[in-house]
């Protein structure tokens, strides 16, 4: 049974969402002490975090960054904020998906199932990929070059895997979006662009510049 940590300060909505998720076979933990979200995360060891942005004390972006310091667990933002900037901030801060309120529980369940399937499909693999002397460990979600190492988010892992598997071939934006979310129905171009740019930044930080090239009107390529 997959475990979900639901971080929502609207108690009625939290209980309603929790009951709906439990009917679909998930085990749901609710946060009661919003001062100790990170401690609760460490204690509960969830498979997925569903988190509101507007929270007491510190917002969801803050807690997402704290979780990202220690874990690559999938994080879905659930918020009444619906601007492109909020979506970009959510993805930029390490979120894997973003759902606006009011929302359909069927959409939420579909997103949760999809993100679990995608996030943990590599759990039984120790697959290692290489690009020159760069080492990409899919299972651990890390890229290493010489003495430098960077952790990748689940979305970055999938993007990098797709590009490396298709080395010297252009991978379309549509193909990447499908690999991330199975369907591009709920995805904006901004979300993919943010993920690509963040991945490029991490690759650059370990010593590779311009590895991922843009083919205008076509997609991306690693050569």
How would you describe what is shown here?
It contains 8 helices and 11 strands. By secondary structure, the chain is α/β, with parallel strands linked by helices. The chain folds into 2 domains: 3-119, Response regulator (Rossmann fold), CATH 3.40.50; 128-222, Winged helix-like DNA-binding domain superfamily/Winged helix DNA-binding domain (Arc Repressor Mutant, subunit A). The longest helix is centred in the C-terminal third of the chain and has 17 residues, at 189-205. The N and C termini lie far apart (41 Å). Residues 126-223 bind DNA.
Lay out the secondary structure.
Elements: E1 3-7, H1 11-23, E2 27-30, H2 37-44, E3 48-51, H3 60-68, E4 75-79, H4 84-92, E5 97-100, H5 105-119, E6 128-131, E7 134-137, E8 142-145, E9 148-151, H6 154-165, H7 173-181, H8 189-205, E10 212-215, E11 219-222
Parallel strand pairs: 1-2, 1-3, 3-4, 4-5
Antiparallel strand pairs: 6-7, 7-8, 8-9, 10-11
Find the CATH superfamily of the largest domain. Answer: Response regulator
By DSSP, the count of extended strands is 11
**What is the string of helix and strand elements?**
EHEHEHEHEHEEEEHHHEE
Structural class: alpha/beta
Q: Helix coverage percent of residues?
A: 40-55%
What are the segments in which pLDDT stays under 50 over at least 5 consecutive residues? 122-126
Strand content: 15-25%
**What is the class of the largest domain in the CATH system?**
Alpha Beta
How many H/I helical runs?
8
> What is the CA-based Rg, rounded?
18 Å
Largest sheet, if any? 5 strands, parallel
Spatial strand order of the main sheet? 2-1-3-4-5
CATH architectural group of the largest domain:
3-Layer(aba) Sandwich
Q: What spatial form do the alpha-carbon principal axes imply?
A: globular
Give the N-to-C terminal Cα separation.
41 Å
Summed over residues and divided by their number, the pLDDT gives a mean of 86
- The fold-level CATH name of the largest domain is Rossmann fold
Q: How many domains make up the 3D coordinates? A: 2
What oligomeric assembly is this protein in?
single chain
